[in-house]
Amino acid sequence: MLTEEKKASLKKQLLKMKEEAENDLEQYRDDRAKEDYPNDKTGEISSVADHPGNQGTDQFEREKEMTLYEQAREKLMEVNDALKRMDKGTYGLSEKSGEPIPEERLEAMPTARFNVGELENNKE
């Protein structure tokens, strides 16, 4: 079972992760707001593309940004869920078996909800 000191340390780590995810989401929103003026982002003077490859590059960049946004959003959801489990007193216990999650796993992945063995059994 986790000590109060260890829980406090993990909560601090979770709050830092939450702040990072929120900053990433805010950065994405700021970038999306700039898309009202797409030439500002690409540095193009004209709205006419010089080369079809430019359109592909722009599309790739938009998809990459969307992927990073989704990752940050999922990270924020996982962190918020972990913080709720802390408040409920179920943090550090597997959602599947109710068994304690090893401290090492929680240190490496503070949002962990299951023991490693339980994840492997689900893949069968």
Count of individual domains:
1
Rg computed from alpha carbons, rounded to a whole number of angstroms: 21 Å
Report the average pLDDT across residues.
84
Low-pLDDT residue intervals, each spanning 5 or more residues: none
Keywords: Metal-binding, Zinc, Zinc-finger
Region (Disordered): 21-61
Pfam families: zf-dskA_traR (PF01258)
Zinc finger (dksA C4-type): 94-118
List descriptors.
DnaK_N, mainly alpha, Znf_DskA_TraR, metal-binding, elongated
Write the layout of secondary structure elements.
Blueprint: H1 4-34, H2 38-42, H3 52-88, H4 103-108, H5 116-122
Helix pairs in contact: 1-3
Zinc finger (dksA C4-type): 94-118
Domain Zinc finger DksA/TraR C4-type: 95-114
GO molecular function: zinc ion binding
Structural write-up:
The protein has one domain (4-92). The relative contact order is 0.14. The chain has helices spanning 4-34, 38-42, 52-88, 103-108, 116-122. 69% of the residues lie in helices and 0% in strands. The radius of gyration is 21 Å and the shape is elongated. It has 124 residues and is mainly alpha-helical. The protein contains five helices and no strands. Keywords: Metal-binding, Zinc, Zinc-finger. Residues 21-43 have a biased composition (Basic and acidic residues). GO terms for molecular function: zinc ion binding.
